């Protein structure tokens, strides 16, 4: 076991050197996500905005994600990915600083729109960086390592953001800007001068055109509904726990930290254990667990109950997120990968546009409990779409086989 652990952690061992480099980049960059985690609380508590206004402002960020997800892919066809990524990091530093200084609602809306566009483009470009700097056999492993790094960064951001918000909310923005600057310096130092690998060859599997791929279109529909259900964690949970559970900002931050730490600890074992189920069952189980974890919030009280809810919906996330990404990669390998990734991230980002508005209106008109009942319903409505997206047993078997090949065992 010790030998396997050494092989796992050694550069150019189980994971390639560039997989570690890009995972470290993502970890540093995710430290700045404390702004996203506490933005709703900042707008409501510090600036005193109405919950409906908060929802509309957060939807501006979601609109930016929607645009940036596709825009990043399109621009990367004309500008070197490394150069484009560095430029986006540089602009993000100043946007984060301005978000901590500006208080006028119209200016905040514009900055959140720009911030979402930058984040959406960077997320898409990270996928392309993996494709350009990692060998084909290493790409699935690099994806797994990046997911662990992403959640480690989220765990640290949740805890640090809660502590900083207790002192002064503006420190959340300024420290996030410093972390983005550090990510830029790391990226320039480690990746800027590296040569990209040859582009992937197009495989014979799949239709090659996403809009003619019926199974992929069902997957996009599932991504929108599931994303809307899941995004309420970021857009509404903080205010809800403060209003209904009377938790401090530090305790709320620990909920986000608990979520991320559970993903880091359990993601690989759960994925390995779930392989025997097949992709469809993993996705269905994840949706049901998400529905239960969020839908139980109106029916309890106390910190322990909140933690139990967090554990359950985190298990759901750990079950549905990797199989969904694997399905997208499978479709992308059969055709125009940029279009597949761009459309998928646009669909997922659409949830960040729609969810804050809908949840804000529900919260303001019918109370906070209605948000979680609606989220649970959306997660359950995803089930038939997933069945349609994974109805090909041949595809499911092929994907399960490819995951076993890349697993630690």
From TrEMBL:
It is found in: Cell membrane. InterPro entries: MFS (IPR011701), MFS_dom (IPR020846), MFS_trans_sf (IPR036259), MFS_Transporters (IPR050171). This is MFS transporter. It is a multi-pass membrane protein. Keywords: Cell membrane, Membrane, Transmembrane, Transmembrane helix, Transport. The lineage of its organism: Bacteria, Pseudomonadati, Pseudomonadota, Gammaproteobacteria, Pseudomonadales. Residues 18-394 form the Major facilitator superfamily (MFS) profile domain. It holds the Pfam family MFS_1. One of its GO terms (molecular function) is transmembrane transporter activity. Its main location: membrane.
């Amino acid at each position: 076991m010790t030998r396997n652990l050494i092989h796992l952690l050694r550069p150019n061992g189980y994971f390639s050197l560039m997989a570690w480099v890009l995972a470290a980049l993502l970890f540093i960059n995710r430290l700045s996500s404390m702004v996203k985690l506490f933005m709703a609380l900042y707008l409501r508590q510090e600036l005193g905005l109405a919950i409906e206004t908060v929802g509309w402002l957060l939807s501006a960020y979601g609109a930016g994600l929607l645009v940036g997800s596709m825009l990043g892919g399109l621009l990367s066809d004309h500008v070197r990915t490394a150069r484009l990524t560095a430029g986006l990091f540089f602009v993000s530093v100043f946007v984060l600083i301005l978000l901590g200084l500006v208080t006028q609602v119209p200016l905040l809306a514009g900055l959140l729109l720009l911030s979402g566009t930058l984040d959406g483009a960077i997320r898409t470009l990270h996928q392309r960086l993996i494709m350009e700097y990692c060998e084909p056999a290493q790409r699935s492993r690099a994806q797994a390592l990046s997911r662990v790094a992403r959640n480690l960064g989220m765990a640290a951001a949740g805890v640090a953001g809660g502590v900083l918000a207790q002192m002064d909310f503006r420190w959340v923005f300024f420290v996030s800007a410093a972390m983005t600057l550090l990510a830029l310096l790391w990226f320039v130092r480690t990746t800027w001068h590296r040569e990209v690998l040859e582009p992937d060859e197009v495989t014979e599997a799949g239709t090659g055109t996403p809009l003619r791929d019926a199974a992929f279109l069902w997957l996009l529909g599932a991504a929108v509904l599931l994303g809307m259900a899941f995004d309420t964690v970021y857009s509404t949970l903080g205010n809800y726990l403060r209003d209904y559970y009377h938790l401090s900002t530090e305790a709320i931050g620990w909920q986000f930290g608990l979520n991320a730490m559970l993903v880091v600890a359990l993601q690989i074992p759960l994925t390995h254990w779930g392989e025997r189920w097949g992709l469809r069952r993993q996705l269905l189980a994840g949706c049901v667990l998400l529905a239960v974890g969020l839908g139980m919030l109106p029916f309890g009280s106390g910190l322990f109950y909140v933690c139990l809810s967090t554990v359950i919906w985190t298990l759901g996330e750990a079950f549905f997120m990797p199989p969904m990404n694997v399905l997208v990669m499978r479709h992308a390998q059969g055709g125009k990968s940029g279009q597949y990734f761009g459309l998928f991230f646009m669909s997922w980002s659409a949830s960040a546009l729609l969810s804050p508005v809908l949840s804000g209106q529900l919260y303001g008109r019918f109370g906070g409990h209605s948000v979680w009942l609606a989220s649970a319903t959306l997660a359950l409505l995803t089930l038939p779409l997933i069945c349609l997206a994974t109805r090909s047993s041949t595809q499911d078997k092929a994907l399960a086989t490819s995951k076993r090949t890349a697993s630690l065992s």
